[in-house]
Specification:
The structure holds three protein chains of three kinds. By secondary structure, chain A is α/β, with parallel strands linked by helices. Chain A is built from eleven helices and twelve strands. Chain A has one domain: Thiamin diphosphate (ThDP)-binding fold, Pyr/PP domains (Rossmann fold, 3-Layer(aba) Sandwich), CATH 3.40.50.970. In chain A, a hairpin with a 2-residue loop joins strand 11 and strand 12. In chain A, helix 3 packs parallel to helix 5. Helices cover 41% and strands 19% of the residues of chain B. In chain B, helix 2 links the parallel strand 2 and strand 3. The radius of gyration of chain B is 21 Å and the shape is globular. The longest helix of chain C has 5 residues. The two termini of chain C are 32 Å apart. Chain C has a domain of 65 residues: Alpha-Beta Plaits (2-Layer Sandwich), CATH 3.30.70.20. Classes of the chains: A alpha/beta, B alpha/beta, C alpha+beta. Chains A and B meet through strand 2, strand 4, helix 3 and helix 5 of A and strand 3, helix 3, helix 5 and strand 9 of B.
Chain lengths: 297, 388, 99
Amino acid sequence: MVKAKDLTDKEYLYGHKACPGCGLGTIGRLTLKILGERTIVTLPASCMSTVTTQYPQMNYTVPSLTMAFAGTGAVLTGMAAGLKAQGITDVNVLGFAGDGGTADIGLQALSGAVERGDNIFYICYDNEAYMNTGVQRSSLTPIGAATTDSPSGTASFGESKPKKNMFEIMIAHRIPYAATASSAYPYDLMNKVEKAKNIQGPKYIHIMCPCPTGWGFASDLTVEIGKLAVETGMWYLAEYENGKVKMSHVPKTLKPVEEYLSRQKRFRHLNPETIKLIQENRDREWALIKEKWLQVC
Amino acid sequence: MDFLNGDEAVAYGAKLCRPHVIPVYPITPQTIVVERIADFVANKLMDCEYIHVESEHSAMCAAMGASLVGARAFTATSSQGLAYMHEMLHYVSGSRFPIVMMNANRTLAAPWNIFGDQRDSLSQRDTGWIQVYVENGQEALDMIIQAYAIAEDDRVYTPVMVNLDGFVNTHTYELVDIPEQHEVDQFLPPLRSKNAIDFNHPRSFCISAATEWNMEFRYQQYEAMENAKQVIVEVDKRFGDKFGRYYHGLVEEYRCEDAEVVLVALGSAIGTSRIVVDKLREQGLKVGLVKLRFYRPFPAEYFKALSKRVKAVGVIDRDLSFGYEGAVASDIKSALNSAGSPPKVINFIAGIAGRDITKENIEGMYHKLFNLSQGKFEKELQFTGLRW
Amino acid sequence: MAKPQIVKFKFPESLKEMPLGPSAEAGILTEPNAGWRVQRPVLDHSKCSRCLMCWVLCPEGVIDKQNEKLEIDMNYCKGCGLCAHECPKDAITMVNEGE
C-alpha cells in the first residue's frame, strides 16, 4: 500500500501548461513517482504532449518522445524491443495516451501491442473527448455530453452513442493486468500502478481524468466530480488480473445520475427524458457488472 | 556465390547488418524478406527482436521507438504499406533517426495490382528519406549494408529507403555474393547513436517547435541531405575498396562518353537497357545510358553538366504525377534547364503496374530521341506500350 | 534537486549549436505559471495535520513536503483551488490575488 510520506519529493512532471485543476497533472506526477526515474515516456498528440513539450520548456524530467497520434502502442513495442535487444532490463516504457489516442485512432496499435505481450505500461487518461483540439467527441464520450462536434440542438441531445468499454476490450485480450482508476482516487491509482509495475507483459490502466474546461465545472471541483462519477456508477474502479475481475470500490447504493450530470455544463441541456435514458443505461451496465463480477443476481 | 532472389538478397543484407529490432508487416512482393528473416530468427541465425506488428504504420512507429533507445532498426514494405506509413516517414526523417527500410516497388491502388512500378516510392519523394534504386539482387544486398553506413554517418542521420522493382527484382533469381559477416562487421561497426535517449542527460524528443524555431530545424534537415551527397560517394568507395564492387555514387554512366542521346532510368530497367545500348552501339549509333541510383538527394549538378554534352535525353518514368508528367522527368528537366540551352527531353511513361519494358520498347525510345535531336517532332510525354 | 528550477535558456546562436533533430533537454523551465492565477492558496499551519492530501492531489506538484511545514511554490501554482477544496482540515483558504 502506497503511503504519501514515503513517496519521493522529486517531481518528474513540473511546470506544465495544462488547465488549472486538470486531472492529467495529478495522474502524470503520481505515476512517475511510483515508476521512478528510469522511465521513458511516450506521448501521442494530446493535451499531455502539447502542454509539456513546448520548445524550449520541457516539463518532463525523464526522457520523453512525442509521437504521431495513432502510434503509442507501436512505439512502446519498439522501445521495449530495442531495450531488450541491447540487454537493458531496468527501464520502464510508459505511454500516456488520451481517450482518442487509445480508443479511436490508437486502438489498432494498442491491440497489437497487447496481443504481442510486449513489456509495456499503457495509461489512458480519459477526459472523454478530444480536448486538445477543442473538445470534439471521441468514442469514449458518454451519452448526452455536448461537445463541439456533437452539440446539443433542436435535433440532437449531444453525443448519442454510449461510451466504449476499453476495460472489457483489454480483458478480451487476456492482458496480464488491466485496471480502471480515477484521478479523484489517487491512492487507489497509486496502488494499482505500484502493483502493475512488477508485472511482466503489457499493463493497461484506464484513468478517468475530469476536465474543468471541457466538462464545464470550476477548477477546484475536479476531485468532487470524479468522486460523483464513481458514486453515481457512471465510472467504476476495478482490476483484472489472473483471469478475474475485482471491483476496487462498489458504492452501497448508486446515487441518481442527475447528481453527477447537473454539475457539468456539458450535460446542462439534457431534458428529464434523456436523463432517464442515461440512468437506465447505467442500471443495465451495473446489472451486468453484478452478474459477471460480483456474483450477485 | 548463392542463387538468391532480390528479396532473399535483402534478407541476407539485413542479417549481415545485425539490426537489433525488425518490426515488419508482410505485403506482396516483399513477403519473402519477411519470411526469410523470420526463418533466420527461428533458427538462431539472427539475434534480433522480430516484431509482428499489426500494420505498416505501426512498423514505422516501432522502428522509431527502437531507434530512440539506440537500437538499429530495419523494416520493409511496399506500395499500400508505404502509403499507410506515410505520416511516419515524415516523422522519422524530421526526427533524424537512421532507420533503413527496403521498399518493393509496386503500384498503388486503385485499380488494385500487385506488380511493379515506382509510383509508391516516387510519390514519397518529399518525405525527407534518402532513396536509392537498385538494378539487381547483388546491388540490393550491398545497398542495405551501405544504407546503414550512410544513414548512421554523423553528417547525415537521415533514414534511407532501398528500392527494388517488384517481382522483376524481388522474385528473380540471380547469382549473389554474400559477404562474410566479419568483413561486414569491420565495414559497419555497431550503432552508437547520437540521437538516442541517455538517462544521464535526459531529453525530450520530437518536441513541438513553434514558428520561431521550426524553419531552423528544417534547414538542418536540408543540410544533412546535402551532406549525404558527399557521404554516399565516400561510402561507395569504402565499400568497393573492401568488397570489390563499386557502384559509382549517385549516378552511373554507361557508354556516355561520346553519346549524342541518352536514356535515364531507375532500377531494373537499366539492366535491359544496357543490352540495347550495346546492340545500337554495334550499329554505330552514339547512344548512352544514365543509371539514376539516388533519387534523393537528387544529383542536380550531374544533370546540369550533362546538359552540355548531349542533344536529347529520354527519361523513363515508372510513374506519373497526374496533372503534369513523370516525377523523375520533372526533376531532371529542371536540372538540365538550369544550365541554359538544355537538350530536349522526352518523358516515357513505361512499365506501369508490371508491364514489361522490352528491349524493343527501349530501342524505340532511342530512335525517337534521335528524331528529336534531328529536329523532328516528338511529343514531350509518351506512353510506352499502350494498347491503342 | 527535487523540482526543476527556472533557468535563462540559451537559444542556439548558430546552426552548429542546434540539437541533432528536434529534441531538447528535459526538465527545463523558462517561465513561471504564476500569471495564470486569480486566487492563491494560503495555508494555515496551525490547522494542517500533514495528511499530505493536498500534496498528492495537486496537479502542478507545487506543494513541497521536504521540510516540517508544507510549502507552496508560488511560481507554478495556478490557483485552481483543488487543495483548498479537498483539505480535510480546511487549512487552506483561497485568497484573491492583490489582497
